[in-house]
Amino acid sequence: MVLPNEYVEDLLVRMSYHSSAIENNTISLPETVSIILHNTVPNKVSLRELYEIDNHRHAMEYLLSPDTLEKDFTFDILCDTHAILMDRLHHERGVFKTEENFIKGVDFDTAHPKETPVLMKQWMDNVNFRMDILHSNKDVINLVCESHIEFERIHPFADGNGRTGRLMMNYLLMKKDIAPLVIEKQEKERYIYFLANQDAKSFSDFAEEKINKEGKRIKSFEV
Question: What is the pTM of this model?
Answer without folding.
Answer: 0.95
